[in-house]
Design a protein that fits this description.
single chain; alpha/beta; Isopropylmalate Dehydrogenase; about 45% helix; EC 2.3.1.274; phospholipid biosynthesis
Length: about 350
Amino acid sequence: MGSTCVRIAIDAMGGDHAPGEIVAGALRARDELGVEVLLVGAPQQIEAVLPPKTNLGQVQIVPAEDAIAMDEEPLSGIRRKPKASINVAMDLVKQGQADAVISAGHSGAAMAAALLRLGRLPGIDRPAIGAVFPTMIASKQVLILDVGANVDCRPKFLEQFAVMGSVYSQYVLGVPEPKIGLLNIGEEDCKGNDAAVRAHQLLRENSQIAFVGNAEGRDVLSGQFDVIVCDGFVGNVLLKFAEAIGEVMLQIVREELPQGLHGQLGTAILKPNLRRIKQRMDHAEHGGALLLGVDGICIIGHGSSQAPSIYNAIRLAKEAVDNQVLQRIQSKYQSKSSGQLLPENSQ
């Protein structure tokens, strides 16, 4: 790539607040993170939401003829609309014109486009969506995967999720030796269904990860684990529940603050603390989820994403690019030619 600056392709037409909030978040990231942004979508609509006299340095508008609606079937949608914004954005990564792609649009379409356009990394049977959650320890986060890409998972898939999650946790989240857990209904090795028991054995035998055992629901946000793996059905329920709990807690804090003059004074005093609470609990602060296992950096944002979420999604993508997440995952698999991390059809 000709430029040393990280280039991010953004589906400007994806999401409930597109393109206005998408463009606003992209411009902020351009200014604060020093990235180049490629806004993919209908040029007239994108230009209409640009602030007056916007400096278009490090900003490029890439035309796309269509967009995938939220009620469309993902696979048929991206096949019927090859020039849809999400397809065009993925092609930019495939062709080396962008380092990463971000979409807050149809998550199923984004995943399907990533698989068809970018393909899977060698040795990976199924990609996984990884989401970062806050924990009870202020400085610690936990990565949960899968949170929606695979409704049903074979034990081998969960093992692959653990390896990919360990790489991401170590090199992006800065955890020296990530502790891996398997989401289950009990701590004992024998707990859970047959798939959980077999997955536990695979994880325990894998020397490339620090597997510490099963994680019960109450352990997810405890800070005991750095990465927790589960199937996408359970993970998506967990994700949506955690988002709802965060919103409920923030609302409770707002409602319980004293009213009147005393309340205003108290709120002013507590403002730094309240801001930190919001940063820890609000899913918008985390930007989105990384689709691990495809041959390109792909961030899937929340459909309701506004400018702060898009900014954080771009920050997340930049960190993944800067820390060479794809290359590090590939090196994990290439270093295990003896068979421990062979693709599923070899077992």
